[in-house]
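User: Here's a structure from my thesis project, written as structure tokens. My advisor, Dr. K., wants to see whether a designed sequence matches the one we expressed. Can you design one independently, without my sequence as a hint?
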């Protein structure tokens, strides 16, 4: 699950570590609290030092295991997996998240099981394995729907929308975002609204409605600023830079990218730095392309800057396991080398881009995604049918109840009429006898 990081996390970690170092085991009511303290520290480290997060997560697991504390073992596994994912070690991340699911299933914790499915979906999405990402996201969404957890449903719809966005299925992405937005509004979820406005802005950018995209990104930025989410702010600044770049406002694009990099450095967010670095390179590439179109001259300095920044961003994304931006950056890097006149390198990069892109969009994967979408619609249809059947049963019961009440009332009225007649006749007989006595 996504989370905003700020300086408060650092101070919080120091306080937790201080407790762990200064308090003796005897001071704890049970060892369970010590285990919880360890995985709380591990959770915080995923945003600052994931290697340490893995270390503390494993310590938490060993302690929970010695206590035969099943929920603690599951939580430690889950948080260790999240730290591995933050390191870009997706293989180990998947191992630990799947182990956590086994433990949560064993203790019957459906909510946490769904959270693990959601985490796994995000891991596959980061690897550009979108069919698997959708499979796990829909599985998590189904559980949250059964549990009636609207906020969690909105988060999953948000993530599913992003998967469709990366697949360039923009209308489906927008539909998911709108569903999530409606829930966020009803629950007054400020963090969710900021995120969904930014995501909708990305869709409108792809639809070439750059003014609408900018409006949404600015709206999201102000909301993130209001709630103190620097994580969200750097994302919004990056997306604003993208919109300005598409409008050929190169100066504004570079200003916003630099602001995003500054925040990412503050957050120690290597992934954010990598993607923004590559984006800066695309500014210089577009400047060079525009100059060539207008004057017929090659802007060698801009081309060199483009190759420098895009190469740096591409390599960092590859090292961090950020496959989606890595694949995307291969194309502008190829275009930069083509402008330079290095056609051999350009062709190699272009082939690699198409090969990786085609592997994501293969026919079998598209069929698998289509199958999941159909199953999802059938699932929703079944729920709708079940609801209608329940409504019909309720109406039938109400009708039967009404008929029964009418019969009861009729019977009571009949008894009342018979009683009245009986009393009238008795009274009349008594009157006749009385007259005779007189």
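Assistant: Designed independently from the structure alone:
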């Amino acid at each position: 699950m996504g989370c905003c990081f700020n300086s408060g996390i650092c101070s919080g970690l120091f306080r937790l570590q201080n407790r762990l170092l200064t308090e003796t085991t005897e001071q704890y009511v049970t060892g369970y609290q010590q285990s919880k303290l360890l995985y709380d520290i591990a959770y915080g480290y995923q945003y600052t030092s994931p290697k340490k997060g893995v270390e503390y997560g494993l310590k938490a697991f060993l302690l929970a295991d010695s206590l035969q504390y099943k929920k603690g073992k599951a939580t430690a596994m889950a948080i260790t997996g999240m730290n591995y994912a933050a390191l870009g070690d997706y293989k180990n991340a998947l191992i630990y998240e799947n182990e956590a699911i086994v433990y949560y299933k064993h203790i019957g914790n459906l909510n946490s099981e769904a959270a693990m499915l959601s985490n796994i979906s995000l891991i596959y999405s980061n690897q550009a394995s979108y069919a698997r990402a959708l499979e796990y996201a829909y599985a998590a969404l189904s559980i949250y729907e059964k549990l009636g957890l609207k906020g969690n449903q909105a988060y999953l719809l948000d993530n599913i929308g992003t998967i469709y966005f990366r697949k360039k299925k923009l209308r489906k992405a927008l539909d998911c975002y709108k569903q999530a937005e409606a829930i966020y509004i009803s629950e007054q979820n400020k963090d969710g609204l900021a995120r969904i406005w930014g995501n909708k802005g990305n869709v409108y950018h792809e639809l070439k409605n750059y003014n609408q995209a900018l409006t949404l990104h600015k709206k999201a930025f102000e909301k993130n600023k209001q709630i103190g989410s620097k994580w969200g702010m750097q994302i919004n600044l990056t997306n604003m830079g993208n919109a300005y770049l598409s409008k050929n406002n190169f100066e504004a694009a570079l200003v916003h990218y630099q602001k995003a990099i500054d925040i990412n450095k503050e957050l120690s967010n290597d992934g954010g730095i990598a993607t923004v670095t590559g984006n800066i390179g695309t500014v210089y590439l577009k400047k060079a392309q525009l100059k060539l179109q207008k004057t017929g001259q090659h802007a060698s300095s801009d081309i060199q800057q483009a190759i420098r920044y895009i190469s740096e961003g591409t390599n960092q994304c590859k090292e961090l396991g950020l496959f989606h931006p890595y694949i995307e950056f291969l194309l502008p890097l190829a275009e930069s080398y083509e402008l330079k006149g290095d056609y051999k390198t350009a062709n190699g990069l272009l082939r690699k881009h198409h090969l990786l892109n085609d592997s994501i969009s293969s026919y079998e994967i598209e069929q698998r995604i289509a199958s999941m979408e159909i199953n999802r619609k059938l699932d929703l249809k079944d729920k709708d049918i079940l609801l209608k059947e329940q409504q019909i049963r309720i109406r039938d019961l109400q009708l039967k109840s009404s008929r029964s009440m009418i019969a009861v009332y009729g019977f009571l009225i009949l008894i009342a009429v018979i009683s009245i007649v009986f009393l009238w006749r008795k009274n009349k007989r008594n009157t006749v006898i009385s007259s005779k006595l007189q």
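When you compare it with your expressed construct, this may help: The radius of gyration is 32 Å.
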